[in-house]
Amino acid sequence: MARVADRTNSVPTPDDTRTVFGEEGVREGSGLRKLVVDLFAWKKTDQLVEAHEDSWDESFMRLLVCKLKRMDAREKGRAPWRTESERCRLYHEHDGQTTCGVMEAARK
Q1: Which positions ≥6 away from 68 have C-beta within 8 Å?
Q2: In this structure, are residues 65 and 91 in contact, taking their beta carbons and an 8 Å threshold?
Q3: Alpha-carbon torsion (35, 68, 48, 17), positive or negative
Q4: Rounded to an integer, what distance in angstroms lies between the CA atom of residue 72 and that of residue 95?
Q5: pLDDT tens digit string along 28-79?
Q6: Cβ–Cβ contacts within 10 Å for residue 10, how many?
Q7: What stretches of the chain show up as alpha helix (H) in DSSP?
Q8: d(CA 51, CA 39)
Q9: Cα 93 vs. chain centroid, distance in angstroms?
């Protein structure tokens, strides 16, 4: 998702946020939830959030606002999904292993 977002300069839609963050969505604390919030925090999405006619998921918006309020100047300059090690550490589940194999599979 991170690579597609960078390549196409896109982010999830309001429907996507309701699917991921809604009552039957992805579990709290998952890497996918973190990634969606980070994409909105670092990419230029202010006009999209402001002008989109559909409503955004409330819990997504709450997490996004908290993320933006807590970011310091160092964090604002770098998007964490752009380095493989950070992408793996922040967004992948490893079941007790050091790495999950996703990065190795992506290189092949």
Answers
A1: 41
A2: no
A3: positive
A4: 30
A5: 888 889 888 888 888 777 888 888 888 889 999 899 888 888 776 556 667 7
A6: 14
A7: 2-8, 14-21, 31-42, 46-51, 58-70, 73-76, 84-91, 102-107
A8: 18
A9: 14
List the structure tokens of 66: 């908290």
| Rounded alpha-carbon distances, angstroms, from residue 73 to 43, 68, 69, 70, 78 | 15, 11, 11, 10, 10
Nearest by Cα to 41 from 64, 20, 19: 64
Q: Do 81 and 90 meet the contact criterion of CB atoms below 8 Å apart? A: yes
Task: Work out the number of other CB atoms within 10 angstroms of the CB of residue 74.
Answer: 7
**pTM (2 d.p.):** 0.65
Which residue's structure tokens are 């309020």? 69
- Cβ(13)–Cβ(5) under 8 Å? no
